Amino acid sequence: MNDYEIYTPTAEEVHSGVLGRRMRQFNYGFVGEYGQTQPVWVSARDTKGELLGGLRGFVFLQWLNVELLFVDESARHQGLGRNLLATAEQKARELGAHSATLNTFEWQARGFYLKQGYEEFGHIDNYIQGFQLVYMKKVLAP
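and the corresponding structure tokens:
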């Protein structure tokens, strides 16, 4: 018989941060103390103030993790995506990042990221409806 119970935590338990603190304490034994996650957010708007695109990510353990990069169809193929990514990478360097990582579906921007110096290091076939999810990384030059 088990001496524990699996349950769904309350919102208060989740927001307390106890689980994350315990995980960090465990990790510190291997890599020493490290800083908090630092957001990296970059957006672009047109002259009318309309959002054209943006990037959302964060720096953690000296890596930029790109969670989202989107450019409106009306602004594609004009360098905006490249500029958003380059700006985010520079902000990440300033926060101490030495590398970047992201994932993208094959129909999204794999080719774009390859042109920006990212390399594929893995993928999951048939992630959804026969499409691959591609994992990519890049060393951020100083």
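(Above: one complete record from the training split.) Residues 105 and 133 are 5 Å apart (CA to CA).
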